[in-house]
Amino acid sequence: MATFGDFPPSSSNNDKDNSMSEQTSWERKVLEDLAFAALKEQRTSRRWGYVFKGLIFIYLMAILMLMMPSAELATHKEKHTALVEINGVISADDEASADTIVTGIRDAFESTNAQGLILRLNTPGGSPVQAGIVNDELKRLQLTRPDFPVYAVIQDVCASGGYYIAAAAKEIYADKASIVGSIGVRMDSFGFTDVIEKIGVERRSLTAGENKAFLDPFLPMREQDVKHAHTMLNNIHQQFIDVVKAGRGDRLSDDPRLFTGLFWSGEQALPLGLIDGLASSSTVARDIIGAEDIIDYTLRPDYFDRFTGKLGATLSQALFQSTATTGLR
After folding, report:
1. What homologous superfamily is domain 68-305 in, according to CATH?
2. Which in 84, 266, 267, 326 has the greatest CB count within 10 A?
3. pTM for the model
């Protein structure tokens, strides 16, 4: 009779060993697959990173190429019309400064391929000094090259100092809806005397010279100050009037409002003699100068230098702050 002890050796141990071996092999395969997948993903990510970096580099280079002064292209044109743009407020600290404008104008006059110059204006005016510098230089350059005509073309607005510059041109053109004129001078200020009294502030101003605190906004206006300011403004205004009369001559009408600081549309300015016709830059270049191709001689700001300068300043500031913070710890 058979007993429990008489059973033959069981195969369960072998099965268990085989199962553990298969499980270990499966885990190793999963780990290998995960490692290869991670490596593949890392390579793909690195590859796409190179692609994106390359695209960004190409994009930045394209922007820099577009920002390069187009006047460099003038040497490749046999016959063209030169263009200098005057945009924004005319000021020594702005893009429309006398130095910037005059540099572009001089480059245009020096080009033997340029058949004429268009000053394209879109400005509310600004400094009479800066406008006067440009006007004087235009008149000087036209004497050195009488066969090189200068035309002013007004876009949206050409007022005050802008018209001061335009008056030096041979002829002035505008759109029928352009704003033209504002031949006058102004000085602006504020008065805070009532505010000081209400809040109880005591004004303390020490000067050497009885007029050093001229038109102090914290003090009541003195009659002699106002009179002197009006005299000065009238003097500058007369300079403006003389420049316009010298530039426009008999084309100006005898309308008494011309020099009162009023402004008109291009359509209204035509019979007043403030402009010579209604035309755009392309029309003047094609039909009047006779050179349809327009080359921009405007001196543009160096955006790359500005960017690198700002970047260097930012890095320096960050480094300084980092050093200062480290020193405090």
Report:
1. 2-enoyl-CoA Hydratase; Chain A, domain 1 (3.90.226.10)
2. 84
3. 0.70
